[in-house]
Amino acid sequence: MNDDGAIFAIAIDPRSDPLNRTIYAGVSYGYGTPKSGSKYGMYRSIDNGLSWLSINNGLPDDSLNIKHIIIHPLNSKIIYISTSYGSLGPRMTAGYVAKSVDAGSTWQILLKDVDCRALAVDPFNPNIIYAGNRDCSGHSPNKIFWKSTDGGMSWKYLPGDMFNTGFTYHT
After folding, report:
1. What's the mean pLDDT in 122-126?
2. Helix (H) or strand (E) segment spanning residue 23
3. Of 23, 46, 89, 141, whose CB count within 10 A is highest?
4. Residues 169, 136: contact at Cβ < 8 Å?
């Protein structure tokens, strides 16, 4: 793992060996232009953080502002991540929600073009997932609260004026 990024998300697999915990970390590039050769994105350690493996297969190279990592409450091989919009040099990169069913070895994008700042899996029904989108990116206005009832395969936005603060950011 590199030392020039920012870690915004960490998750520990509660089912992993207590002497060799599996840890996931999302390394983001923060703001501005990433340094040449830097390695941002998802990482996994199976030895309490002593060594790290990059696990970005299936994730877009240009959108690695990882904000949340959620481990499925019943099956720790299933992992969800959310990312936000970010500045990659002179342009904005899209955020998304992604899922892995093999402990991060491969990923599938579930929800695209969001600025996802919050993610939760229902501990009593893990097929229900909520995602919170920031409504100031200008990319999906008034669609700031999303719900999936099938493990992220489809999403419905939940309308509600209570979430609309009236603030809109335009570039």
Report:
1. 94
2. strand 23-28
3. 23
4. yes
